[in-house]
Specification:
The complex is a heterodimer of chains A (252) and B (289). Chain A is mainly α. Chain A is built from 11 helices and 6 strands. Chain B has one domain: Divalent-metal-dependent TIM barrel enzymes (TIM Barrel), CATH 3.20.20. β1 of chain A pairs antiparallel with β8 of chain B, so a sheet runs across the interface.
Chain lengths: 252, 289
């Protein structure tokens, strides 16, 4: 009699679906099929991935509590397995999952907070790059400034939320941060070693969004002035550059 | 063909929450080990700190995602990423597991077991050879902790590992906690496992804490947890192992519920003491590496 070999496809199918039987040929030392032994692997996979998410989205976990976060993360993990062995990349669509997760509706800003923490993680691991400094921008001839485009620094991320996610995030890093209701725009940068999370004015965020999309400075200013007539592009550009949002200026 | 070896001392897993403390206090630790996959981002603090650590300490690069035991061909992109880490940090050791963790597009983030047959032996040998070729150096292959067996297996785990080492020239990483976990789970004698292990090939030892539960028959089942101190029985088995191997670089693994660095440093001191004792006793050394 020959004993059939267990294909890894069958192992995985049973691993990710607890309703499936343990593949035949996988046994205990007694020779019997033991669901509890196989469940150790099921549990390792799910607990491990929930742990990856808890480490990547710590403020989200604090906002809803560990118990709720674990339930939510387990539901996500059940249908979203990593597609890369590099776990820092896992969970990129967790914010979108949370946005559709009925159980999290009582914390309407949870999805935006997850997007902030995802951007933080991307910034933390982004390529090293020296940001364009104020002096570099200041040295540019004002005549050609409108035609200038700016290359985003590899770490830079921009989020706009109907909720004060930047202030809430900061309040979870250090006590004493005031949180006021209302929309916030958050710029995430890594000018040196540490990731910076900064709440920026709404008009600056419109401007930054255009610049990060590759618009020339002149076009971005014009578009921002339509919705924000008081917009001061000079101070906005100084602010964005001092936060390290851009890599290099280029004239188009 | 290799970079210098790790020193025969206690080493610790390098954790981001300890980066600054280690660089400030410069603790006397034999080496640090990192999971390769945690350093596969493009830049930022992980690389900056690791570069500073390798200036001061020997490094063991330990992969957890290569899926050497997988049915599928090795992931070439992943091999390239490993090669670039090896080139960049010049670790004194590179190790991976006798296990698989990926299937098609899915990575399962766990070390899964494989049957031990002539077919799987040929496959693992081919994969180890491919890794060594891609990295331009020999590697260490680690014995797994397992919770199940395969009815189809025809080769004993130690013979399987010994054959891989012999056919590929790779070294072995003897995880003493895994020996205890698997031995208890499969009702084998852990001391016999160590007695039979090809110690001449051992380039590193791992120690860790385990958790405990029961299987469906209500029998004791150990879980490789890396979430606590090394248990007394594993430490006794480690001392016994040192008696056979002589001094070997020995990592204390603590990956979950990571404690303050001082707790890890305490564990390292205890391990260093055991290694020093075995050196002083001049116990027989069957290890050639």
């Amino acid at each position: 009699m020959t004993i059939g070999s267990v294909r890894q496809a069958d192992f995985v199918a049973a691993l990710v679906d607890p309703a499936r039987a343990v593949p035949s040929g996988i046994v205990s030392y007694r020779g019997d099929s033991d669901t509890k032994r196989f469940a150790v692997y099921r549990n390792n996979v799910h607990v491990g991935l929930v742990g990856v998410l808890a480490a990547k989205y710590p403020v989200c976990a604090q906002l809803v509590g560990e118990e709720f976060f674990t339930v939510m993360a387990r539901i996500y993990v059940a249908d979203h397995k990593p597609t890369s062995p590099i776990m820092m990349q896992y969970g990129a669509d967790f914010p979108a999952f949370i946005a559709d997760f009925a159980g999290a509706r009582s914390v309407p800003y949870l999805s935006d907070m997850a997007a902030l923490e995802e951007a933080w993680s991307i910034a933390y691991n982004a390529a090293d790059d020296s940001p364009a400094g104020l002096a570099e921008i200041a040295a540019i001839d004002p005549e050609v400034l409108p035609d200038l485009t700016l290359k985003p620094h590899a770490a830079t991320g921009l989020l706009r939320s109907d909720y004060p996610i930047g202030s809430i995030w900061s309040a979870h890093q250090a006590p004493g941060v005031a949180v006021r209701a209302g929309a916030e725009a958050v710029l995430i940068t890594r000018p040196a070693l540490d990731v910076k999370v900064t709440v920026i004015p709404t008009a600056d965020a419109v401007f930054a969004h255009d610049l990060l999309q590759g618009s020339a400075v002149g076009d971005a200013v014009e578009r921002t002035l339509i919705s924000h007539p008081e917009f001061d592009f000079g101070s906005a550009l100084v602010g964005l550059c001092s936060l390290g949002a851009f890599s290099q200026p280029a004239l188009t | 063909m290799d970079a210098p070896h790790l020193p025969p001392r206690a080493g610790l897993g390098l954790k981001p929450q300890h980066y600054a403390e280690i660089l400030e206090s410069r603790p006397d630790i034999g080496f640090f080990e990192v999971h390769a996959e945690n350093y596969m981002g493009d830049g930022g603090p992980p690389h900056r700190y690791l570069a500073a650590i390798v200036d001061r300490y020997p490094l063991s690069l330990h992969g957890v995602g290569l899926s050497i035991g997988g049915e599928a061909p090795l992931n070439r992109d992943h091999l390239r990423r490993l090669r670039s880490l090896v080139d960049r940090y010049k670790p004194q050791s590179f190790s991976e597991h006798l296990a698989w963790s990926s299937h098609e597009e899915t990575s399962l983030n766990d070390l899964l077991p494989l049957p031990y047959t002539n077919a799987t032996l040929d496959r693992v040998v081919a994969h180890v050879e491919e890794v060594q070729q891609a990295l331009g150096r020999t590697m260490l292959l680690e014995n797994p902790s397992t919770y199940v067996l395969f009815a189809e297996s025809t080769i004993d785990e130690i013979d399987f590992l010994a054959a891989i080492a012999e056919r590929t020239g790779c070294g072995l990483l003897l995880d003493v906690n895994n020996v205890m976990v698997s031995s208890v789970n499969h009702r084998l004698d852990p001391f016999t496992y160590v007695e039979r292990f090809p110690v001449h090939a051992v380039g590193e030892i791992h120690l860790a804490g385990y958790d405990e539960t029961t299987d469906a028959a209500g029998e004791r089942l150990l879980i490789d947890a890396h979430a606590s101190r090394v248990s007394q029985d594993v430490f006794a088995l480690f001392r016994h192992t040192l008696g056979r191997t002589g001094p070997v670089p020995t990592l204390v693994e603590w990956d979950n519920n990571v404690p303050a660095f001082s707790v890890l440093a305490d564990e390292a001191r205890i391990v260093d003491l055991a290694i020093t004792e075995v050196s002083a006793r001049g116990d027989r050394q069957e290890r050639v590496a």
